[in-house]
Design a protein that fits this description.
The protein is an alpha/beta fold and 712 residues long. It has 19 helices and 29 strands. 46% of the residues are buried.
């Protein structure tokens, strides 16, 4: 078995004479050796062994399935999985309606030839099986269905120390020393989100190493870490969207307590942590749910990944329970502050309560007095997700705004192909995004040949999460190239300022704050050779929707997702914080301005209006009561423009006041040419490729009187 924390005691003699760092290094190389030797998934065959079937605390009924439920059901925290009910006593419960009988297989270790004992579980109503065994924390186990030759992990396993093809492990969540009892949670307003992939965020790719960087994120003004999916998946690297053990934090990043330590430390710094969860499909490798039941999936409704999850068909009750329990679990046992629900357009459910709403409601209940936020990705742009339940909605807090991203990319790069086809990158698009959130709210959408979106006029600005980079969009280029390399420095600075000072909730992707040069490419170590080749072909076909990436020579040069070097290339280099100091200072100053300025800090419905000033320029005005604390955000993504005349009321200061530059993206400290005066009594000058924030001050000179002109 791999030398992880659960086997450290057995390996201690190897490390007694090593320093802590040397021991960690030896553990690391031991892990590499172990994984290299076991690159192919394995199934344990039930060969004759010197072990005997032992009796359970509760013997199997001789009359078939037992009527009713386990007497321990009320003592359990969750309806499924392994739960400790005593120091060395664990209750197991699994849903396996395909089974006539289920045996709990207790394993002395995770080695292939480990000693095993078999414990028959007792059947109860609706396909559940349960039992109690005298085992405690760290014990390995699997299930055997109908006396089959293969054993399988627990569908609700809390930890898979050796990956999805290995044994499940009993975990005690009650011993972790939490120190965040006074953590209040968070609301959607005033947040700045930071998307993080643990495996590439640091060179080590662990929760432990990532936690060491949290203080820097908190210092610069990040308030929420959005952690990309962590449900365990096979292989040595991946994005996490092919998870198969939804209750098991991936062994690749550390132990469950390492994850708890990360969240606990984040809370001590004032940082919230939300988890990206994938409830639209299971990964193709290591998914053993079909052994237990045919009802997890439905072939009647296919999505981009194949069969959909059965949330409303026959026998969907336990499936819904599985996912609702999963939502409760992450909030309760790991103190997550909410979720980002992946690709909800591919979660089909006609039940009275949409499954995502049900999961969200259960998660809020699990959080108790602690506030959490729930954000959805939804390609169809369905506003129902953020509407209150009393109005037929799902009670979520936020939606990712792809429209903003697509407009920004077109404005910065001129690229108008594939899903960028319906965007112009025009000033009006950014004004509408500031006022209404989504751009498409039911209008024709030529790329899909149908109307897109639903009205969002009642939604508050913070409900829309705006971004110019995220994991998908960076990877959807030929080589995972960061956006700053696809445009001019001036336009990139100007767009960054719009992102971070706009009325929406801004989101950054890891490394964006210091202008990371490292790419982010689609990588996955899932499956064997044929599966990896199928994934490669599918990925390349997806990218071929962009004509610029469909050419044969370009396709041949695309990075292969299963190449370990691709994964390594995506790891951040934190020395770039210093090397790219101009980018870092730009983000730090903008985040400070957003946090400390009385008006940019506010997010209120109807508090912003805008006007087009030219082909590539516009102004947003942030209103206050009485107008004497208003702000202007002037954005020009084109050439220098002089507004004379300037017949736009939003540019007019109140009587007795004038506009003064508060901040400019053209500061030399960010690599710009220098700040110039924008507003005078004669004209407005918009420097090329810049964003400027202005505030009101009392007039330094009296307003000039108009010249006398002959009338008539």
């Amino acid at each position: 078995m791999p030398p992880d924390r659960l086997t450290e005691l057995a390996l201690r003699p190897l490390f007694n004479n090593a320093t802590a760092s040397q021991a960690r290094i030896r553990l690391f190389y031991a892990r590499l050796t172990w994984y290299a030797a076991r690159a192919r998934p394995f199934l344990v065959v039930d060969l004759p062994m010197k072990s005997e079937t032992t009796s359970m605390h509760n013997q199997r009924s001789t009359g078939g399935r037992k009527s009713g439920v386990s007497k321990f059901a009320k003592e359990r925290r969750y309806p499924i999985g392994a739960e400790l009910i005593g120091p060395d006593e664990t209750h197991f419960r699994v849903w396996a309606p395909k089974a006539q009988d289920v045996d709990l297989v207790i394993e002395e270790s995770a080695e292939k030839n480990a000693k095993r004992t078999f414990h028959p579980l007792e059947a109860e109503d609706e396909g559940y099986f349960f039992g109690v065994a005298n085992v405690g924390t760290g014990s390995f186990y699997r299930f055997r269905i109908n006396k089959a030759e293969h054993f399988h992990p627990d569908p609700a396993s809390r930890f898979q120390p050796h990956g999805p093809h290995g044994s499940s492990c009993v975990v005690d969540p009650t011993t972790f020393p939490w120190t965040d009892a006074n953590w209040p949670g968070l609301k959607m307003k005033s947040q700045v989100i930071y998307e993080m992939h643990i495996g590439t965020f640091t060179p080590e790719g662990t929760w432990e190493s990532a936690a060491k960087q949290l203080s820097e994120l908190a210092k610069i003004g990040i308030t929420v870490v959005e952690m990309m999916p962590i449900a365990d998946f096979p292989g040595n690297f991946g994005w996490g969207y092919d998870g198969v053990d939804l209750f098991a934090p991936t062994h690749l990043y550390g132990t469950p307590d390492d994850l708890r330590t990360f969240v606990n430390h984040a809370h001590s710094l004032g940082l919230a942590v939300i988890l990206d969860v994938v409830y639209n499909h299971f990964g193709p490798d290591g998914n053993y749910l079909g052994v237990y039941s045919d009802d997890y999936l439905t072939r009647e409704k296919e999505n981009d990944w194949g069969d959909s999850i059965n949330f409303d068909g026959p026998n969907s009750g336990p499936v819904r329970e599985f996912f609702i329990t999963n939502g409760r679990y992450w909030i309760d046992e790991f103190h997550f502050d909410g979720f980002r629900f992946d690709a909800t357009q591919s979660i089909f459910d006609k039940s009275e309560e949409y499954i995502i709403g049900a999961i969200g409601r259960a998660a809020r209940k699990a959080a108790g007095k602690r506030s959490i936020i729930l954000v959805a990705e939804n390609e169809r742009q369905e506003a129902k997700l953020i509407q209150p339940r009393r109005e037929g909605g799902d009670d979520l807090d936020g939606l990712l705004n792809d429209d903003f991203h697509h407009s920004a990319v077109v404005a910065l790069t001129g690229l108008r192909e594939a899903y960028y086809t319906d965007y112009l990158g025009s000033p009006q698009e950014f004004i509408s995004a500031a006022k209404y959130g989504y751009l498409f709210q039911g209008q024709p959408y030529s790329w899909q040949g149908a109307p897109r979106g639903t009205p969002t006029f009642k939604a508050t600005p913070e409900a829309f999460v705006a971004f110019i980079e995220n994991h998908d969009q960076v990877a959807n280029t030929a080589a995972g190239e960061r956006l700053r390399f696809q445009t001019s420095p001036g336009r990139y600075r100007a767009m960054t300022a719009l992102l971070l000072l706009g009325p929406w909730t801004p989101m950054l992707f890891q490394g964006q704050e210091f202008g990371a040069s490292t790419p982010f490419i689609f990588f996955t170590d899932v499956g064997d050779g044929p599966m990896r080749e199928a994934i490669r072909k599918g990925r390349f076909e997806f990218l071929a929707q962009f004509p610029s990436l469909a050419m044969e020579e370009t396709q041949k040069a695309l990075p292969v997702p299963s190449d370990p070097r691709v994964f390594v290339r995506c790891k951040l280099d934190f020395s770039e914080r210093e090397r790219n100091k101009e980018f870092y200072d730009l983000h730090v100053d903008l985040l400070r301005l957003r946090r400390e300025d009385s008006r940019f800090h506010e997010q209120g419905l109807g508090g912003v209006d805008g006007a087009v000033l030219g082909p590539a320029s516009f102004v947003l005005r942030y209103f206050t009561e009485g107008n004497i604390d208003d702000r202007l955000l002037v954005v020009n993504l084109g050439k220098q423009r002089v507004l004379s005349p300037a017949p736009e009321p939003l540019l007019a200061p109140p009587l007795g006041f004038e506009w003064k530059t508060l901040w400019s993206s053209e500061s030399v400290s960010y690599g710009g040419p220098g700040v110039v005066t924008v507003a005078t009594q004669d004209s407005w000058t918009l420097p090329a490729e810049t964003t400027i924030a202005l505030r009101l001050i009392p007039e330094k000179e009296p307003r000039r009187q108009p010249k006398r002109r002959k009338l008539g």
